[in-house]
Design brief:
Number of strands: 0
Structural class: mainly alpha
Shape: elongated
Radius of gyration: 23 Å
């Protein structure tokens, strides 16, 4: 068999995977590997497919093989890092992001993901540094601004947090969580009217966000508008928010 056919199988596998037919994609990647056992990209692509099926251990095995065949494969290190993170192996996850960045210093997503991992470890200063670098490399990365804003909020730098949330929304106006987080920031500053506007936008984008409705209620309470507060608590309660349910129950109010 012509080993060049391996690329055709691999490319067709990618197409199947993009269409959501992951099982057929894996069959094509298997065939590509059978035709050319040295084809690092086929192992890499099959690893991605296994990851979509939740077969993380098999996914890692394929990235291992891809890296064995091509030690310069930055994307394979990056994806393996994500897989290790899903298994809770944080140190190996960071090691793989480090290697991906060493091989490709322009790899914005690797800095971004490493930032998330450092944040999970409570290393917020390093988290911010990685988001800074990701943004420097890709100024259109809305989630890097959003995540950095959340860190600034956590550290008490509310004004800087709002600036980052503003930028994230400018880049992607469909991010419900960013409106919610900016609402929290405005609430922390005592600007409850603006907080309500942001929470309203969050529930417009995600009508099942019980906590956002609850926070709207709390903001209306701060403004002295008990009627509107109760209206929003009722919605939050129907969506399962325990805080709203407990409050309404204590007042004998049905929802």
């Amino acid at each position: 068999m012509n080993p060049q056919f391996a690329e055709a199988y691999s490319n067709r596998g990618v197409a199947y995977d993009n269409l959501g037919n992951t099982q057929q994609a894996i069959k094509d990647f298997n065939k590509a590997i059978e035709l050319n056992p040295q084809y690092a990209k086929a192992y890499y692509n099959r690893g991605i497919a296994y990851g979509k099926l939740g077969k993380t251990q098999q996914e890692i095995k394929d990235y291992n093989k891809a890296i064995e065949l091509n030690p310069q494969y930055a994307e394979a290190y990056y994806n393996r890092g994500i897989a290790y993170g899903e298994l809770g192996n944080t140190q190996q996850e960071i090691n793989d992001y480090n290697k991906a960045i060493e091989l490709n210093p322009q790899y914005a997503k690797a800095y971004y993901n490493r930032g998330i991992t450092y944040g999970n470890l409570g290393n917020y200063q390093q988290e911010i540094k990685d988001y800074n670098k990701a943004i420097e490399l890709n100024p259109q990365l809305a989630m890097a601004y959003s995540n950095r804003g959340s860190v600034y909020y956590k550290l008490g730098n509310t004004q800087q947090a709002i600036k980052d949330f503003n930028k994230a929304i400018e880049l992607n106006p469909q991010l419900a969580d960013v409106y919610y987080n900016r609402g929290n920031a405005y609430g922390k500053l005592g600007d409850y009217q603006q907080a309500i506007k942001d929470y309203n936008k969050a529930v417009e984008l995600n009508p099942q966000d019980a906590v956002a409705y609850s926070n709207i209620g709390l903001a209306y309470f701060k403004l002295g508008n008990k009627k509107r507060a109760i209206e929003n608590f009722k919605i939050a309660a129907r969506l399962g928010d325990k805080l709203a349910q407990n409050y309404l129950r204590s007042k004998g109010i049905e929802w």
